[in-house]
Specification:
The protein is an alpha/beta fold. The chain has 20 helices and 9 strands. Helix 9 links the parallel strand 2 and strand 3.
Length: 466
Amino acid sequence: MKKFLDENFLLSNQTAVELYHQYAKEMPIIDYHCHLSPQEIYENKSYKNLTEIWLYGDHYKWRLMRANGVEEQNITGDGADYEKFLSYAKTVPMTIGNPLYHWSHLELQRYFGVTELLNEKNAPVIWEKANAILTGGGFGARDIIQKSNVKVVVTTDDPVDTLEYHVKIKEIEGFDVAVLPSFRPDKSLEINRKGFVDWVHKLEQVSNQSVYTYDEFLSALESRVRFFHSVGGRVSDHALDYVPYADTTKEEAAEIYAKAIQGQTVSLEEEKKYKTYTLVFLGKLYHELGWAMQFHINAARNNNTRMFQQLGPDTGYDSMNDSSIAYPLSRLLDILATDNQLPKTILYSLNPNDNPIIATLMGSYQGGGVAGKIQFGAAWWFNDTKEGMIQQMKTLADCGLLTRFVGMLTDSRSFLSYTRHEYFRRILCNMIGEWVENGEFPDDKELLGSIVENICYNNAKEYFGF
């Protein structure tokens, strides 16, 4: 019987052991999509206790605590921080088979040297040990990033953001990590969502130009893309809960935009037309600038109306959607490809049933001399489990080139989440090791090692050009 979380955790064969320890383990990290706060990075935010750094804002943990019968007071409410930690400690032993059992213990081991199992009995000693490290100095947000061997952090930023902290971070002496913005223009696309008109007025202010007409609106968006580029942005990100597509013209899109900013109702078909034209406009701009465009598809957000009204978005009440993506996604990509203006693109779906659709569709748009131009994005959100990662990578290998994969990201609000890269790398090495030991791929360590190093770091470095 193997010991839990030993040095060969998740490595079930000798080839996997060699690949992980000799090639994957020490590779740097490019975290090309996360939700960390650039302000907290700039300020090197410190944390008063384990609950603050570990449980505040972590809806993965909140969902399991609710499932375990914990009252909301000790999850997101006004319960004491120790009581919240204790509630999570009582929940963790119930999480067998869930990646949070692994993630939680990896984070405790790697950052705090805690080897005790997290449970109600061990909670007091773990609380004291971790808090002593957190309050002992040298454990702020930037310190954690550097301890984790991270070279690039790409945050998620609204087009109206000032990016002031990204600029300030560049001026910090001794901090050699690139903290770059990604352009997340969801609010510009969600024409039927409450607050659209207010957001448009913010865009008008920050771009210092009129946005009354659709042409002016697109011009303002373009000015923000170019501003992001000047600060180092090389990635956009779109949350497409469904993939919009409808044949349209610029004139139609302009009429729909005019209706929306005047407070008139916009139909679903009109919304699709507006989104289609705007996405294509932005895609061409990304291509011009050499950016990578990301589509995060098929999330069903804020399902629980009562809790959304109480707590707001991103609090653990989302799930997978099952909207059809094959036709609209192929049409969106095709419009850009027809004009030879399809940018580098990364496609993620929250619904694993979409995996073969994405893995085969992307093969239709590869080319232009760019290795892995269209990427099947890493197993995302509810799929970044052991089995979810294996399924995503095997589907990619079945239909394309796993060797050109840009690898893992954290998609997290927690500075302790870099252990997810370790988790991914162990799973990657074990999967490849199984193929080798089953005689499905030759035991060429030089080739295998380069494949592992490329997926862990080098591919992303080349692809994004940070």
